[in-house]
From TrEMBL:
It holds the Pfam family Isochorismatase. The keyword Cell membrane does not apply. PANTHER family: ISOCHORISMATASE HYDROLASE, PEROXYUREIDOACRYLATE/UREIDOACRYLATE AMIDOHYDROLASE-RELATED. Residues 4-153 form the Isochorismatase-like domain. This is Nicotinamidase-related amidase. One of its GO terms (molecular function) is hydrolase activity.
Amino acid sequence: MYPALIIIDMQKGIHSPKLGQRNNPEAESNIHSLLLAWRATQAPIVHARHISRFSDSVFWPNQEGVEFQDDFLPLSHEQIFEKNVPDAFAHSGLERWLHVRGIESLIITGVVTNNSVEATARSAGNLGFNCHVVGDGTFTFDKTDYNGILRSADEVHAMSLANLDGEYATIIKTREALNFLTP
């Protein structure tokens, strides 16, 4: 059985200038190539969509930012899970949906690396899924650390992936993810 492709928060709001400087400008292209490959093999696809509880969020309901980006519009047979917290497993039914279908392996991609991607991958690993995060299929933004030092998006991204690798998930590249579709 093919792993499920989980695409996290590929919504229009992620391009808001208020989020700041980002890394990995190739991420959307990589995610889109994964989506097309999963569709071509009819492998399971899950779209996670963030519906924020905070009115200042780029994902606040009933505004353009909450909508899926055009390249990531789910097809009618693809599963959508809405979430109000970073973790796509929390209160969403995702775990049950995967278990009912006998899906044990996951390929996780999307945004934001150190937020929803990391939270979802941690839960996936803790729940016993064989989890892979596509490092070049995620991106993040500059962030000030706890000591007040501004860290670049590349630094935040690398640390987030390091937090996951070997503990909750295996970090892979897009080309490696595509190999999961080879019979």
